[in-house]
Design brief:
Layout: H1 2-25, E1 48-57, E2 74-77, E3 81-84, E4 87-90, E5 95-100, H2 101-109, E6 123-130, E7 136-143, E8 146-150, E9 155-163, H3 168-177, E10 178-179, E11 182-183, E12 193-200, E13 215-222, E14 228-233, E15 236-240, E16 243-251, E17 259-265, E18 268-275, E19 288-294, E20 298-304, E21 317-322, H4 334-337, H5 342-353, E22 373-378, E23 381-388, E24 400-403, H6 422-428, E25 434-437, E26 443-447, E27 451-458, E28 461-462, E29 468-471, E30 477-485, H7 486-497
Antiparallel strand pairs: 1-2, 1-9, 2-3, 3-4, 5-6, 6-7, 7-8, 8-9, 10-11, 12-13, 12-30, 13-14, 15-16, 16-17, 17-18, 19-20, 20-21, 22-23, 23-24, 25-26, 26-27, 27-28, 27-29
């Protein structure tokens, strides 16, 4: 009898042992509830304002899917509601569970490798809310600054926290300007907008023994539905009189020591050639040319008049030319553009000369020259500069530039009523070196030493994520920046889209 009890007891122990082993071997196929880790109560708060930072396709087959949540989206989380743009989820309570991220991905999405999310495996909080239609929505809190949200388009969206409370100003803008999860079309402030920018690089030795400049242009276009497009060009492009002009600097047919400006359009290979080698007047022979500014009315240049190339390029002369007749001998005077403000030019010149040391007078031509001025871009705006040249060509002495105390008029800069506060932008992005704000204050283009980023402006705040980011060089100088809105933006976009000068 005692022996039977021992057998029965051993059988029970064996059964319990087998059950434990079976349960331990079935973890991979377990439900999420069996993988629960006790949540940390002090680390579950996700309230605040969040901005969409990135999105990831969960399955390769869906990579052609257009994300339903646009790149300029905001997420707002309070105690009783959650909003993504105009998607509003109201709730009385929410549930919080904690899992290892790898377990959650494996069981929820049948994914073992989630390295494409660029996240390490760790314990994460899963917030589950139920909307008024009894639909369940889950949010993954990865850390205090990152939330993941899986929507019904098989895409995982990553949001970054920008505030630990609801930003009422941003939320108010979102309520007014989003419909069906995109910016609505019928808001009077939302219209087509385009931005054209051109760059000149510093001279570099490429295929020639003589260092050459490189020029490039970018067109960025946003439709009134919030979608955008862009085109790139290898030279300076410019809309004028229902055509697209292509402006380039090339070596003269005489030899590589002389350069010329070529202007062409879609209907003609060469409209105009500025070539100093054909000019018998020595004062206007241009050995090297740098284009410093362009708009539909003018071309600003620096040029060199040296007779022989000795390995140094001193581009010391400057001139403002009419784009319809860009010849150096017919350079424009300050009074040609500012008829009623010419006194300001002379006052600015003499004010600068009075600050010079008297010993400098023997080296510099201190007489005012109305035909020696230019536009310069810095600090988020365009400024007028006058130039004082040396009396004789010099390798050691450089020309002196002075501020002309008047802002460029609309002939020079058509949209000059909005200037970027570069100091404020640097607080957000310390690497910013220039910025351009659209007339409607809905887009901003920010340049760093390596990138050109295009960002949407929501309310008075700049979106955290760029809708477009392109590489640029630290030596790229801005020589053209023009905004176009409404019908004009549509027209320019059509002309540039059909242009033969596109890359």
């Amino acid at each position: 009898m005692k022996f039977r009890k021992i057998i029965k007891f051993n059988f029970i122990l064996l059964f319990m042992y087998l059950m434990i082993n079976v349960m331990s071997c079935s973890t991979f196929n377990a439900s999420l509830d069996s993988l629960l880790v006790a949540p940390r109560v002090d680390n579950i708060l996700v309230k605040g304002t969040w901005n969409l930072d990135n999105f990831y396709y969960m399955y390769n087959k869906n990579k052609e899917t257009t994300p339903k949540i646009p790149s300029d989206s905001y997420l707002f989380i309070s105690d009783n509601y959650l909003r993504i743009n105009d998607l509003l989820f109201e709730y009385d309570t929410f549930k919080v569970k904690t899992f290892m991220l790898s377990d959650y991905m494996r069981v929820k999405f049948k994914i073992d490798d989630f390295s494409f999310l660029n996240l390490e495996d760790k314990k994460v909080n899963i917030f589950t809310i139920q909307d008024e239609d009894k639909n369940m929505h889950e949010f993954i809190k990865y850390d205090d600054d990152t939330i993941l949200f899986y929507y019904d388009d098989d895409i995982m969206y990553s949001f970054k926290r920008i505030s630990n409370k609801i930003d009422n100003e941003i939320e108010g803008f979102v309520k007014e300007n989003f419909k069906n999860n995109i910016i609505i079309n019928d808001n009077k402030n939302i219209e087509d907008v385009g931005f054209l920018i051109s760059f000149r690089s510093d001279r570099k030795v490429t295929d020639y023994a003589i260092p050459k400049n490189m020029y490039a242009s970018v067109w960025i276009y946003q439709k009134n539905d919030g979608t955008y497009d862009y085109y790139m060009f290898d030279n300076i492009v410019l809309p004028k009189d229902d055509k697209i002009l292509n402006i380039s600097v090339e070596s003269s047919q005489k030899n590589n020591l002389y350069e010329k400006i070529l202007i062409s359009d879609s209907s003609s290979d060469n409209l105009f050639t500025l070539d100093g080698t054909n000019n018998m007047n020595e004062e206007f022979i241009n050995q090297f040319i740098d284009i410093t500014y362009v708009n539909e009315n003018y071309i600003g240049i620096n040029y060199d008049q040296n007779i022989d190339y000795l390995g140094n390029i001193n581009i010391d002369k400057c001139a403002m030319l009419s784009i319809d007749d860009p010849t150096i001998e017919r350079r424009l005077k300050f009074s040609d553009i500012f008829q009623k403000s010419v006194k300001i030019f002379y006052d600015s010149h003499y004010k600068f000369i009075n600050l010079l040391k008297k010993g400098s007078f023997e080296f510099y031509d201190t007489e005012p020259r109305e035909d020696s001025f230019r536009l310069e871009r810095y600090g988020g705006d365009w400024f007028l500069k006058g130039r004082v040249n040396t009396k004789l060509p010099s390798v050691t002495l450089k020309p002196l530039d002075f501020d002309i105390e008047i802002l460029p008029n609309k002939k020079l800069v058509s949209e000059n009523n909005i200037s970027a506060n570069l100091g404020q932008i640097k607080l957000r992005n310390p690497e910013a070196r220039d910025a351009f704000i659209s007339p409607n204050k809905d887009l901003i283009v920010i340049l760093t030493s390596t990138t050109m980023g295009v960002y949407k402006i929501v309310g008075d705040k700049i979106s955290n994520n760029a809708i477009l980011e392109l590489p640029i060089d630290a030596t790229d100088n801005v020589i053209l920046s023009e905004w176009y809105t409404g019908d004009k933006a549509i027209e320019v976009n059509s002309l540039l889209g059909e242009s033969k000068f596109r890359r």
